[in-house]
Amino acid sequence: MSLSLSAEQQAFLREQVRERFLRYVRVHTTSDPDSPSCPSTERQFDLLRMLEAECRELGLKEVELLPEGCLLATLPAGDGEAEPFGLLAHVDTSPDQSGEGVEPRCHENWDGGVIHFPKDPALRLGLEDSPELAQFIGDTVITASGDTLLGADDKAGVAEIMTAMAAFTRWPELPHGEIRICFTTDEEVSRGIEGVPLERLPRACYTMDGGLMGELEDECFDAWQLKARFTGVPVHPGSAKGVLVNASMAAARLLASLPEGESPERTEGREGFYFLHLFRGDAEQAEIRLLLRDFDAEENRRRRAVIEDGVARLRERMPRLQVELEWEHQYANMKEGLRQDPQITERAARAIEDAGVTVLRREIRGGTDGSTLTALGHPTPNIFTGGLMYHSTREWVPLKALCAASETILHLARRWTGAAS
């Protein structure tokens, strides 16, 4: 049984995903890496409660919003037998840019010219900034207004899942088994699976959290975070000789010792890096946060050793300097877990093709909730949402990709029923 969507169904997807996406991105849901609470910000519940109400309106079952910041819902199976699968997206947005007061702008029938932003006249977006835009000339390109990120990461995924659920509700004859939905919080601060009851998730899941239209990812970074705190000995600089130990200068020396070629701006593809995420301090106290990323866990162990050797040299040079290192393994490469059951990823690949989109097999130069889920025994590849230039004020997503991702979910459900031809 093949699935060819009617013109009415195509128009429904386009209208629904656009309306939902524009509504969701206006809700302020930025997470906070310094907050110990779960979720890290109470404002994430604003979108979760909205989604909870919408899930109930669609007639989904087992709708439950957990106090830890996780929304669960189930689309019951249609006719026939099928193994259930899960769909996940996260509601929080990155703290790298403001997510408050997002004002999305729809550039209808975009002609390929430079896109300008009313809130920042110096900001621009064109083909030289993001060559992928060339694929969407003539389509509607959605951006923010210049002083915030857009929030397609991952409210595009949220909108695409909800749009697919709306389509299943309107056309119950569309083939599908049981689909369990999970909207998470704090993915952007590597805590997305905290509080998620794993026993409520099926064996196989998919995150709708990818980028360019057609992307399908079954490999991600191995990821470490370092919080390093430096404590020096302050004194007036006029009488500092032999007394002053400058904490910020010590931190700067450590950073300067790292290989310049292993930075995000100098790497691509399968190359790993050190990324300075935060530096703050003065002569007495300094703090840095470094992210270590690589597809090979051994390479990250090497990077850890480089840093620890550099700290040892600082301590030898400045005996009164105090340095505290706090390491956190944030997530692991999901490659091996997914290769144990390749059919899960292959069904997604076929579903993308069913939607008329070329499959782009890629590794994620980042991570998703699926990284953690795969390590916990729930193989979870990542499917595109369509957005690009995430975590920036130039973030953008084409309406065509939002529709294609929504349609991909419909085909994926059919693939899980075994009804595909």
Q: What are the defining features of this structure?
A:
421 residues, alpha+beta, Aminopeptidase, Alpha-Beta Plaits, eight-stranded mixed sheet, four-stranded antiparallel sheet, 9 helices, 17 strands, 30% helix, globular
What does this structure look like?
The mean pLDDT is 95. The strands form 4 sheets. An 8-stranded mixed beta sheet has the order 1-2-8-3-9-16-10-15, sandwiched between helices. A 4-stranded antiparallel beta sheet has the order 12-13-11-14. The chain has 421 residues and is an alpha+beta fold. The protein has helices at residues 7-24, 44-57, 152-170, 247-256, 297-317, 335-339, 342-354, 369-375, 399-417; strands at residues 61-66, 70-75, 85-90, 105-107, 115-117, 120-125, 141-143, 179-184, 205-208, 215-220, 222-231, 273-281, 285-294, 322-331, 360-364, 382-383, 396-398. The relative contact order is 0.19. The longest helix has 21 residues, at 297-317. Helix content is 30%, strand content 23%. Strand 5 (115-117) and strand 6 form a beta hairpin. The chain folds into 2 domains: 7-220 and 333-417, Zn peptidases (Aminopeptidase); 222-331, Alpha-Beta Plaits (2-Layer Sandwich), CATH 3.30.70.360. It contains 9 helices and 17 strands.
Report the CATH architecture of the largest domain: 3-Layer(aba) Sandwich
CATH-level-4 superfamily name of the largest domain: Zn peptidases
Shape: globular
Strand order of the largest sheet: 1-2-8-3-9-16-10-15
Count of the separate structural domains: 2
Low-pLDDT segments, ≥5 res: none
Q: Termini separation (Å)?
A: 5 Å
Number of strands: 17
Give the CATH class of the largest domain. Alpha Beta
- Percent strand: 15-25%
Structural class: alpha+beta
Helix segment tally: 9
Major sheet attributes: 8 strands, mixed
Helix and strand run: HHEEEEEEEHEEEEHEEHEHHEHEEH
